[in-house]
Prior knowledge:
Elements: H1 20-45, H2 48-55, H3 58-64, H4 67-98, H5 103-118, H6 121-135, H7 146-171, H8 174-182, H9 187-202, H10 204-217, H11 233-244, H12 248-279
Helix pairs in contact: 4-5, 4-7, 4-10, 4-11, 5-7, 6-7, 7-9, 7-10, 8-9, 10-12, 11-12
Amino acid sequence: xxxxxxxTEAGPAPRARLSPRKRKKISLAIQYAVFLVVIVTLxxxxxxxxxxxxxxNLDEARKAFPDILAVGLKNTIIYTLSGxxxxxxxxxxxxxxxxxxxxxxxxxALAYIEIFRGLPAIVVFMILGFGVPIAFQDYEMPYDxxxxxxxxxxxxxxxxxxxxxRAGIEAVPKGQTxxxxxxxxxxxxxxxxxxxxQAIRIVIPPLTNELILLFKDxxxxxVIGFTLSGYELFKFGESLSTRTGNSTPLIVAGLLYLxxxxxxxxxVRKLEAKQKRGRV
Length: 280
């Protein structure tokens, strides 16, 4: 008696799938490889002698000192800090108006915020630098050019700071206001002695970030056309580059901007990390 037997042949073993972790490692390796190839290619193709002469000429860099510090850097710091101080207090007032129960106050604050956040900062500079003197010929801005720049930067920064302050005030627990009122404080006193100080602590990182943005916005001063004594970093570097036909002074100005903004950026990150640890 014959017994039929069926023989089944095993096919090829299925390929093992890569885990998400391995796929991520492979993807990162490919990206790094492409990045390295691009960098090496640019390094071989670029004319380093021409780059060094046009952008990193030490002789031209030396010509920028010490005036770029005594004039450009000094004016940049003065413009930024004066505009920030004005924007800080004006922004706080606008934020309180935005939160007011009085409808006209809210409407004025909202209109201000939308207008000055919507307008490019360069337009505000041009209005104050050229429009206001034409409209009010008998009026002179106090401490010009510093007064004009401080007002322009302050008006712009106040619109952004107002929203920052509003968010900080709304983040303070309602129980803080109720506790202050239960102690006999008026609404205004409770706001300024209890709520606002807590709100400012909450929004310190974005407040510092706005200061960084204002340092860069101060470069728009060039549109007003001040004399040499009123030049900030960008205008000083641009003027010297135009006169010498070399871009090195602009690079020096850019590096000085970084000397101001990079430490502030680091401070923002530390403050944000500290706040996150405090919330855990």
